Amino acid sequence: MKTAASSELFRKLPSVDDVMHVRAVAELAANYGHDSVVDGARVVLARLRQEITSGLLDSDALELALTGLAGAVEKQLRQALSYSLRPVINATGVILHTNLGRAPLGEAAIEHIRETAASYSNLEFDLAAGARGKRDVHVDRLFRRLLTNDAAGTLIEGAGLRPGGTAEAAVSTRAGIAPSEIATIAVNNNAAAVLLALNTLADGGEVIVSRGELVEIGGSFRIPDVMAKSGAILREVGTTNRTRVSDYEQAITERTRLLLRVHRSNFEITGFTEQASMVELVTLARKRSIPLMEDLGSGALLDLRSIGIEGEPGVLDSLRGGVDIVTYSGDKLLGGPQAGLISGGSEFIARIRSNSLFRALRVDKLIYAALEATLLAYVRRDHDAIPTLRMMRLTKEEVGERAAKVAARVDGSKLKVEIVDGESILGGGAAPSSVLPTRALALTCEGLSADELAARLRGSEPPIIARVEEGRVLLDLRTVFPEQDAAVVAALTRIVV
Fold it and tell me: What number is the average pLDDT over the span 400-422?
């Protein structure tokens, strides 16, 4: 409701046209465009009207606001026309942080994207034949090289395991798909990979899966729902905590099209439990001539036992162990871009590729560029070129040394900085019960609660995302790039000044 006083203030407000004739405002059009400046002026004036209505502005305050009108319009334009998707500093210690974009790409992948995006490319052109080609070849050739017996030894050795160790034995002693018969295709994420494979291999038929593997992960991805969308019929067996291979065998009928094994990506079942082993399921699948598919989710190409992570199956283990089709993510433990990867016997992959859904779900040239560069790092055994792997391989002592250097550079009597033992986690649904020992910066600030301090860090430029535990803000430098340490120091210094 307008009062006499507020009516007087409203009369002092200029029109949009008057604002546009202010020289400083008119000059903004050169950078932002006339229409955008008009919109910005309208927003600023509307905000002033709201503040008058709410009684937040008196005559003097309004006069002051009007003197800074050009600056207010420019600030509004910067906010409205800046990127919403922004880089942040991940100081949470969660390596594959889904909310922060999961795996960061390596320099080679970024450069390959840049050169591919800025020009035409041979995405679907066979340079030797001078005819149309297939986009799959750019990464399939590298996957074929990596997913072989020879590559198994290379990857295990590159991960720091001794030849003859348990992972190598597992790969070499079970008869799986011959290396020459392995093929791989890429779609836009692992959910799409599961959907496409199920639709191709089991549409209208039954798929047998353990009740304890009917998982739901972030974003409401539920195995039963995806299966229903694929046209396959769910046949769940066993109980939540115990499923034997005999449960699968007793459920097989003439309508059975597929046996499905699903990795419990973000939880574990402990206590009185039993799960059919991969060897048992492979044996059953061969005996009954039914394909076996495994949804691994994270898709590790390295044996993680070399860094103390147990119980996270790898792509090599599954394929060499006899699984027919494996689905996994490109932006998790593989360390590449978002993609869903389907590896397996070439006959199955050919059928999946011919599905009309494949064209709707396939990835573009930028994803292929990033995948190719990431896979080449594996082939060259340059694992530190992949940020995710480099972070996982850091020792507690290495992270602690960096934390000590950052702490020594932070000045301010109001801010208390301690270095404490902590735990980093893989994240992204990988190895939910496994942690990596780390050393973290523990921060408390006089006059600010932990939540307020964390909010100020998020408001810095670039934003810094931290953890809050037990009334303290924790910064784990495992997931902070070394070149970002200076930005962390600067943000902490600004907060306490």
Answer: 91
Collapsed DSSP state (helix, strand, coil) of residue 126: strand
What residue segments make up the domains of the chain, in order of their start? Answer: 4-81, 107-385, 391-496
Q: How far is the C-alpha of 399 from the C-alpha of 405, rounded, in Å?
A: 10
Rounded to whole angstroms, the Cα distance separating 417 from 192 reads 45
Higher-confidence position of 346 and 309: 346
* Angle formed at CA 450 by CA 449 and CA 454, multiple of 5 degrees: 120
Q: How confident is the model over 453-489, as pLDDT tens digits?
A: 999 999 999 999 999 999 999 999 999 999 999 999 9
SS3 assignment, position 179: helix
Amino acid at 441: L
**Which fold does the domain 391-496 belong to in CATH?**
Aspartate Aminotransferase, domain 1 (3.90.1150)
Give the model's pLDDT for residue 149: 52
In Å, how far are 142, 302, 303, 376 from 379, measured between CA atoms?
A: 8, 12, 15, 5
Q: Contact at 8 Å (CB) between 316 and 286?
A: no
φ and ψ at residue 450, rounded to 5 degrees: -60, -40
**Residue 349 carries which side chain, given as an amino acid letter?**
I
Contacts of 161 (CB under 8 A, 6+ apart): 167, 168, 303, 305, 306
Beta-carbon neighbour count of residue 70 at 10 Å?
A: 18
- In 3D space, the residue among 118, 19, 30 whose CA is nearest the CA of residue 69 turns out to be 19
pTM: predicted TM-score of the whole model, two decimal places = 0.85
Quick check: bond before 462 cis, omega within 30? yes
pLDDT band at 152 (very low <50, low <70, confident <90, very high): very low
Classify residue 310 as exposed, middle or buried by CB count within 10 Å of its CB (0-12, 13-18, 19+): exposed
For 430-456, how does the pLDDT look when each residue is reduced to its tens digit (9 = 90+)? 776 678 999 999 999 999 999 999 999
Assign residue 35 a region: left if phi > 0, alpha if psi is -120 to 50, beta otherwise? alpha
Q: Which of 38, 40, 50 is nearest to 73 (CA)?
A: 40
Rounded distance between C-alpha atoms, residue 100 and residue 145, angstroms: 31
How far apart (Å, rounded) are the C-alpha atoms in residues 347 and 140?
A: 14
β-partners of residue 367 are none
Q: What is the pLDDT of residue 243?
A: 87
CATH of domain 107-385: 3.40.640.10
